[in-house]
Amino acid sequence: MRPAASVPTVTVKAGTGTEMHVLVSPEQGETGFALRRFIMQAGGGMPLHTNLVEHQQYVLRGKARIRVADTVYDVAPDHTLFIPAGVPHSYEVVDGPFEFICVVPSTPDRITLIEDC
After folding, report:
1. Domains plus CATH for the chain?
2. Residues contacting 43, CB < 8 A, separation 6+
């Protein structure tokens, strides 16, 4: 157990105005998942990219426009979203800060940026 406020902040280099906190991971115990909190400031977001792992997300505050493949979702607090592994997705903050919980498998991941055609 540890207070979320004590978790170090990591700047997401691929994003704009985007920070992440790894709240629970294998460092805290034997688990196959990582629980992360993302905070994207007004005007922030993430460009179109893919990951090697799936994302399960729950929005805490703010609003964003999230593209998953060719579909765009306008999300707000209490919305959930599933992003399959390898599927292109992006985030554009509409009302910031935009904050969400993201659960991913505890396996190696890589962000690959995609040029939007």
Report:
1. 9-107 (2.60.120.10)
2. 16, 17, 93, 96
The reported pTM is: 0.92
Tell me the pLDDT tens digit for each residue of 77-98.
Answer: 999 999 999 999 999 999 999 9
List the beta bridge partners of residue 45.
16, 92
The per-residue DSSP string of the chain comes to ---GGGSPPEE-TTSEEEEEEEEE-GGGSS-SEEEEEEEEEEEEEEEEEE-SS-EEEEEEEEEEEEEETTEEEEE-TT-EEEE-TT--EEEEEEEEEEEEEEEEESS----EE----
Q: pLDDT tens across 29-46, in order? A: 888 999 999 999 999 999
Residues in the chain: 117
